[in-house]
Design goal:
InterPro entries: Peripla_BP_I. This protein has 380 residues and is an alpha/beta fold. It has 12 helices and 14 strands. The protein folds into 2 domains: 195 residues, Response regulator (Rossmann fold); 148 residues, 3-Layer(aba) Sandwich (Rossmann fold), CATH 3.40.50. The strands form 3 sheets. Strands 7-6-8-9-10-13-14 form a 7-stranded mixed sheet, sandwiched between helices. The protein has a 5-stranded parallel sheet with strand order 2-1-3-4-5, with helices on both faces. The longest helix is centred in the first third of the chain and has 20 residues.
Length: 380
């Protein structure tokens, strides 16, 4: 006879509409798929009950809905946020309630809270390896950075500047747009005039989609192809809503791509599309939302307890077999061991051309990370 499961309410706080609603929708799909699997698993002692709010990309609504989840619904687990601005605004609420925020997306690092489990990559797991590769491709890269005007892009810009100081090259311009700002024409003109060898895009949401289209339309083929185009945000659901030509040949650094050849990944994609349809497109952030659900269930299974202090103590003992392989949490900083990968966007797909052969220990403060070019790509 199947044992009775422990009912655990989980708050879900993803913006499924607004500037970055396409990403939010697929992150929501990721956690919902995990919840389905857990609730149907006779070996799990946990039954997860989702309580879903859509903040619509509005920071005030993130605060309001987080407060409701914690104090009206009495949840102890919240899975959510995409932008760091939204995470920062709800973090005091999470900490004061001694709850856990399961933070699924990539982020800029330089934070460590006892009440946050950081599942997405931090800069030493995506940005620094990518810069290392760029220095192996160009003797003195001339960078142009365009990003969204909040802490995510600010920190990426600072890391880029410090990296250039330790290596070679120049940051010839850095331009920031407010989230959802579509006025990219002046930035495009600067790119045409300055002729950078390397373009770094850290825009999020509709600003990014508008920029990709505008840049592609503004440059002739030779000028467009002469720029090494990098993105730290571009992902599968965003490619799916655009003409593939406008993001052709962008290089993306992430820890998961749909094209990853692993049996666990093939099974994940199959289940994802069965559950949400063939038009659903998971991203690395969707996968990490899925991981969040399984991590919650696994650590409660492991401890037999939903006491947050107990869970925080034992979370690093729990491993989860994911679509990207086995991962675990670092007890020193509540971040995740992850394996970096690079892919080139070609004809609407991400073709992986490099991946690490080992997990990278998370270093959110870049306290041990080397900014100088390593030997990883010395041979090109």
């Amino acid at each position: 006879m199947q044992q009775k499961k422990i009912l655990i309410s989980v708050g879900i706080l993803y913006s499924t509409s607004g500037s970055y609603g396409h990403i939010g929708k697929e992150m929501l799909n990721g956690i919902l798929l995990a919840i389905d699997e857990i609730n149907q698993d006779s070996n799990s002692t946990v039954y997860l009950q989702p309580i879903i709010y859509n903040p619509e990309g509005d920071l005030n609504k993130y605060y309001e809905y987080c407060h409701k989840l914690l104090h009206e619904h009495q949840v102890k687990h919240i899975v959510g946020c995409y932008t760091s601005a939204s995470r920062k605004i709800i973090l005091p609420l999470i900490e004061s309630a001694n709850a856990l925020l399961w933070h699924s997306p990539r982020y800029e690092g330089f934070e460590a809270s006892y009440n946050v489990i950081y599942l997405g990559a931090c800069p030493n797991q995506n940005f620094l390896p990518l810069l290392d590769w760029v220095y192996s491709q160009q003797e003195s890269p001339q960078f142009f950075h365009v990003g969204s005007n909040y802490i995510w892009s600010w920190e990426m810009d600072r890391i880029l500047r410090e990296s250039i100081e330790e290596n070679s090259g120049q940051l010839i311009d850095s331009q920031m747009l407010r989230v959802n700002d579509l006025n990219v024409e002046d930035i495009i003109e600067k790119i045409k005039i300055l002729k950078p060898t390397t373009l770094l895009v850290t825009l999020v949401g509709t600003s990014a989609y508008h920029f990709y289209q505008a840049l592609y339309s503004a440059l002739d083929e030779a000028s467009y192809n002469n720029i090494l185009k990098l993105s730290l945000t571009l992902c599968e659901p965003e490619v799916a809503i655009q003409d593939s030509c406008v993001v052709e040949d962008y290089i993306v650094s992430a820890v998961w791509f749909k094209t990853l050849v692993l049996s666990e990944n093939v099974e994940f994609i199959k289940k994802f599309n069965q559950r949400f349809g063939q038009d659903a497109h998971p991203s690395v952030d969707s996968v990490m939302a899925w991981v969040a659900g399984h991590m919650i269930a696994n650590v409660i299974d492991y401890t037999g307890d939903n006491n947050i202090d107990v869970l925080k103590k034992y979370i690093s003992n729990v491993r989860v077999n994911t679509p990207m392989g086995m991962i675990q949490i670092d007890p020193e900083n509540n971040h995740t061991y992850l394996e970096p990968k690079f892919a080139r966007c070609q004809k609407g797909n991400f073709n992986i051309f490099w991946q690490s052969n080992s997990l990278f220990k998370p270093d959110p403060w870049l306290s041990t990370a080397e900014l100088q070019q390593s030997n990883l790509f010395k041979d090109g």
